[in-house]
């Protein structure tokens, strides 16, 4: 059974940093492109960062230069380092396979809430 378990969210002030983790099980992790997504209140879930099996990463424009995605294949875990956080980064954050590269409709985890507020 596929599980994505996100952690590391919280309430932070603008300009601060957070590091999210996502433990993955039930998939052959090292052959999957992975991604982080987020969903803000009233908005659709959007892909913000992807990382391929050879560690090539790409980012959406709103987070480019501030967020860094990485993966540890030995731990079946994907990370998201978020720096210079802004109020508009407030959202529920999820990881999953990169749906631009894989057609599987795998279940979503609970996500982890990030709130950026003074």
Q: What do these coordinates show?
A:
The chain contains no helices and 10 strands. The protein has 118 residues and is mostly beta strands. It has a 6-stranded mixed sheet with strand order 2-10-9-4-5-6, with no helix packed on it. A 4-stranded antiparallel sheet has the order 1-3-8-7, with no helix packed on it. A hairpin with a 4-residue loop joins strand 7 (67-72) and strand 8. It is globular, with a radius of gyration of 13 Å.
Helix/strand layout:
Blueprint: E1 3-7, E2 10-12, E3 18-25, E4 34-39, E5 46-51, E6 57-59, E7 67-72, E8 77-82, E9 91-97, E10 112-116
Parallel strand pairs: 2-10
Antiparallel strand pairs: 1-3, 3-8, 4-5, 4-9, 5-6, 7-8, 9-10
Q: What are its keywords?
A:
single chain; about 120 residues; six-stranded mixed beta sheet; four-stranded antiparallel beta sheet; 10 strands; globular
